[in-house]
Each structure stands twice: as structure tokens, then as C-alpha cells.
Write a structure and sequence with these properties.
114 residues; mainly beta; globular
Length: 114
């Protein structure tokens, strides 16, 4: 059974940094494109950053120049380095693997205090 497990969420002050991790199991990780999503309280889940299986990256405008997405296929892992955090970055962050099917982690909470 495919499992994705996120970690690294925390409560941090505005301007702080966090590094989120997502480890996948029971899946050929290198074949999948990967994404990070954020879901703020009472709002829809939104795409934050993506890195495809070729290494091509893309970011939401709101996080450009502050967040860096990466992956390590040898470790079945993906990461999101977040810096200069703002209160509006608060939410549950989910990792997602997709190709013909889509797989999700359970989420990790990031709270940025003002």
C-alpha cells in the first residue's frame, strides 16, 4: 500500500524558516511528478510548488523567491524549504505524487505567528 508521510511542520514566528519533508513507500517514486499543496483553515487546497520527474520546478506566485522544492529519488523523498515565512503561509501542507494516479500524505501543520 502506497504511503506518503510528511514531517517538519511547526509553529514559527513571521520571518522564520521551516523545512518540510515527505517520504514515500511502496511506490516507484522516480516515475512520479511531485507537488506540495497548502490548505488554510476554511479554504480550498492550493498548489504551492511542484517538481516533476525531470526536475522541472514551478511555484505559486505567493511563494516565489521564498520557497524551494526539491526531491531525492534515491530516498523516495521530497522537500519544501520555506523561508521568510508570513502569517498567510499558515495551513496544513500536503505532499502529492501523481502520474495516472494521485497519492496524498496526511498533512503537516505549519503555523506562522505575526
Amino acid at each position: 500500500q502506497v504511503q506518503l508521510v510528511e514531517s517538519g511542520g511547526d509553529l514559527v514566528p513571521a520571518g522564520g524558516s521551516l523545512r518540510l519533508s515527505c517520504v514515500a513507500s511502496e511506490i516507484y517514486f522516480s516515475l512520479y511528478d511531485t507537488r506540495w499543496y497548502r490548505q488554510a483553515p476554511g479554504k480550498q487546497r492550493v498548489l504551492v510548488a511542484s517538481i516533476d520527474r525531470n526536475g522541472t520546478v514551478a511555484y505559486a506566485d505567493s511563494v516565489k523567491d521564498r520557497f524551494v522544492i526539491s526531491r531525492d529519488d534515491a530516498k523516495n523523498s521530497m522537500y519544501l524549504q520555506m523561508s521568510s515565512l508570513k502569517p498567510e503561509d499558515t495551513g496544513v501542507y500536503f505532499c502529492n505524487l501523481y502520474r495516472t494516479m494521485s497519492f496524498w500524505g496526511q498533512g503537516t501543520q505549519v503555523t506562522v505567528s505575526s
